[in-house]
Amino acid sequence: MTKKKHFFLILLLGSLTALGPFSIDMYLPGFPAIAKDLNTSIARVSLSLSGFFIGISLGQLLYGPLLDRFGRKKPLFIGLVIYILASLGCAYTKSIDALILLRCIQALGSCAAAVASIAMVRDLFPVHENAKVFALLWLVVGVSPMIAPTIGGYVTSTYGWHAVFLVLMLLGLLNLIASVAGLPGTYKPDTTISLKPKPIIMGFIAVLKEPQFYTYAFTGAVAFGGLFAYISGSPLLFMKIFAVSEKTYGWIFAFLSIGLIGASQVNTLMLRKYSSEQLIFGALTCQAITGVVFLIGSINGWFGLTEIIILLFIFLSCLGFASPNASALTLAPFTKNAGSASALMGAIQMGLGTLASVAVSLFDAHSSVPMVSIMASTSILALAILYFGRKNIKHKVELDKDSAMVSFH
């Protein structure tokens, strides 16, 4: 594979992967405007975010077997069409209940792009390169939380929140065109895979029984729950409690994203010296300590806006180290059923993220305590899962940093 082709492929896969995060982040500055226009509360508007997470969780379980059975392209194209139509519906909705439903449908479309792009990483690149490729995807994905809320803030303040969903519709259309024109064939459809419920469920169970899968999948998913709590709680925290403007919120969100994405790129350099497992353990330890300090300070009212931004920056930076390595080690044991494995990994991640998001939505609070409590809890639990779970891995497929070989312990 030439460097030019390699770069284009990473860019395209990153663009597909970023569609979901962009859909999550871009409309966040519009929460107050949506609440006012639809005559509801910001906490209830945040349920549309939870609806999106639910759609992604369910959709990934659907698309995993479809991607293995029919190849990567057809399910991807269908998903993008669903996303485009749902985005159009969101732009013209008149009720919060309709918005929640349409956001769920929109997520069902966007998750096809996420599952397909992750599976194609496993299709196209050697196992020992997966962590680096995932880190590069994080760089592309990272552009979305850095610019999406900022763009969303300007679009909302200038044209209204409805226009945000028209922009998302356009992004879906551009991804569809780029995929049709430039996506290579990466996987030969496996006609032996049944789409009947029982074989699909048994396939997922087989994947879930792999100790390396469930250890790193749940470690990464629980840790990621802290990010979902932050995303769901940040509009209320910054725009209601600290009364920052829509544009300022967008810039704060963009700054905090630098920590998440910057760490994922430093992670690529760190892989030259440390193993993925070492980096995950170190990152989660730091994240747990940060979460506990953040929680104690929030309960006692020690922190102002500046201190909260600093602590969130550290917390998200730790996640930037943990997530790419957790993803790579989760999928490392799989080849033939990588689509189902990536779908199940994503479903677990989004499912637990939804729980964290809904938990934050239940509190229309006047402090950061509910959000921070969930962030601290997910960090501690993720560290515990990693510590105890890796003891059950007897034959670990590991990323060998010194050669192109996959080592088994």
UniProtKB/TrEMBL annotation:
It comes from Pedobacter cryoconitis. Residues 9-394 form the Major facilitator superfamily (MFS) profile domain. It is found in: Cell membrane. Its main location: membrane. InterPro entries: Efflux_drug-R_Bcr/CmlA, MFS, MFS_dom, MFS_trans_sf. This is Multidrug transporter. GO terms for cellular component: plasma membrane. The keyword Transmembrane applies. PANTHER family: MAJOR FACILITATOR SUPERFAMILY, POLYAMINE TRANSPORTER 2-RELATED. It comes from the Bacteria. GO terms for molecular function: sodium:proton antiporter activity; xenobiotic transmembrane transporter activity. PROSITE patterns: MFS. It is a multi-pass membrane protein. CDD domains: MFS_MdfA_MDR_like (cd17320). One of its GO terms (biological process) is xenobiotic detoxification by transmembrane export across the plasma membrane. NCBIfam families: efflux_Bcr_CflA.
